[in-house]
Amino acid sequence: MPTAMITGASRGLGAAIAGALAPTHTLFLAGRPSAELDAVAAEYGATTWPVDFGDLDAIEVAVEPIVELDVLIHNAGVAYPATVPESTVDEWRSTMIVNVVGPVALTLPLLPALRAARGHVVFVNSGAGINASPGLASYSASKFALRGFADSLRNDEPSLRVTSVHPGRIATEMQEGLVAYEGRDYDPSHYLSPETVAKVIADAVNAPPDAHVHEVIVRPRS
């Protein structure tokens, strides 16, 4: 089976993506070692891969054994709800490292493996990467930057398929924190389910080889 590496797969959308791709792909779940990540790996017969965006210099060595990779899905991300005047430099630094620099640091050493497979890189972006979201200053900026990286990668690596996925709000732990910041009651039925977004991503990944899905925008119906 083709191979797929997923970041941020220990819970939420990442775990749902693993479930959606498990029938068609051999999975590598990249992240810091944890019981949660091990549990997802055990459920889907996946292999965990030690990748820590807090230690960017170690990533190249960690992925060196991978000589061919069909799909790389950048799902890991953080958000610190804050307006510009409420935000801190430390929040901006952490957001940019995890949401932008980390994906760059993982993609670059994997380019030879992706080229060998004529592979596919998927960036889980956000609606905030198209229109800045109020109260999410650093997060919105990071997602605009991630979209720029995806567009540049698509331009510079014509043998690869590169897809940016821009979901609306998803019923995840991150969403629950944002709704609390906004002072509202959290009702997961108002948002996209992780499984719905995961299926959209799997559909893009499993598109026929002559199709190149550049961008996907998906929003809740209600």
From TrEMBL:
GO terms for cellular component: membrane. This is Short chain dehydrogenase. GO terms for molecular function: oxidoreductase activity. Coiled coil: none annotated. Belongs to the short-chain dehydrogenases/reductases (SDR) family. Keywords: Oxidoreductase. InterPro entries: KR_dom, NAD(P)-bd_dom_sf, Sc_DH/Rdtase_CS, SDR_fam. Residues 2-173 form the Ketoreductase domain. It comes from the Bacteria. It comes from Mycolicibacterium tusciae. Pfam families: adh_short (PF00106).
